[in-house]
Write a structure and sequence with these properties.
Layout (H helix, E strand, L loop, with lengths): L8 H10 L3 H15 L5 H8 L4 H11 L7 H13 L4
Amino acid sequence: MTVSFEVPADIAGLIAVESTTLERGALEALAAEGYRCGSISESEVRRLLGFESRFDVHAWLKHCGIPYRYSEADLEDDLAALSRLGLR
């Protein structure tokens, strides 16, 4: 899907300074807010921003100051996986 909108030139210049391009800045803002409010997942952030791995997403979230969502269910799944591998 393509989305178009008008941005005043002076503001566009400010946004482009903070990221590679205005387009990338807008895309990252969309991904950040979507993840922050819970409307998109880590996997969807990865796809939207073209990251290779979830670790790239984690690094980007950290860079943006966005806390990683890790639930109690995630912890239980990880502990169960460690037990199955004999590491717990």
